[in-house]
Fold this protein.
Amino acid sequence: SQTIHQWPATLVQPVGSPLSLECTVEGTSNPNLYWYRQAAGRGLQLLFYSVGIGQISSEVPQNLSASRPQDRQFILSSKKLLLSDSGFYLCAWSRIGGGYGYTFGSGTRLTVV
Amino acid sequence: GENVEQHPSTLSVQEGDSAVIKCTYSDSASNYFPWYKQELGKRPQLIIDIRSNVGEKKDQRIAVTLNKTAKHFSLHITETQPEDSAVYFCAAGTGGGNKLTFGTGTQLKVEL
């Protein structure tokens, strides 16, 4: 069966520090991968999605970047965090080709202080 | 791109009553409509989905209906229980990259 791992679960970082969140998927090949952000009490904002190694689409201009160095690994990064980067970050995967739901990781709660 | 609107933003019902959450979408090419439930501090989880070739789908106490002509779909929960209390998100998407656009969420509270 397929599983998705996301870490760390919580993170407190000072303004201006770098960020690296990692997500890996097991039990499937060539998944579509996604990074979402959820501000407190708000909806799900798509940040990045990837349909293959090295293929990253950015949905909103921001202080963050994403990379997919391996088929089942998706990384969210920032060189210098802003206060507004605080939120709940969710990685998700889906089968390629459409018509399938997402499976979300357990999320990372990031607080920038 | 796709735009999904969801109503209401909050919904309170008495235990045992029914709850209905409605969503509209803008892209007529969308053909897949999942619903997610998110409990406080946890990940969203898929609870039911419907494809555009089907008008209604049921799974025990939950059901989803789709009106392609009007571009709206709804989640129905019958005989609500306290454990149904959560935030519910609708979404719409198409093939290709399988990118889903989510609604803004409905906070459902089931009161005893």
Notes: Chain A is about 0% helix and 60% strand. The CA atoms of residues 24 and 73 of chain A lie 5 Å apart. The mean pLDDT of chain A is 91.
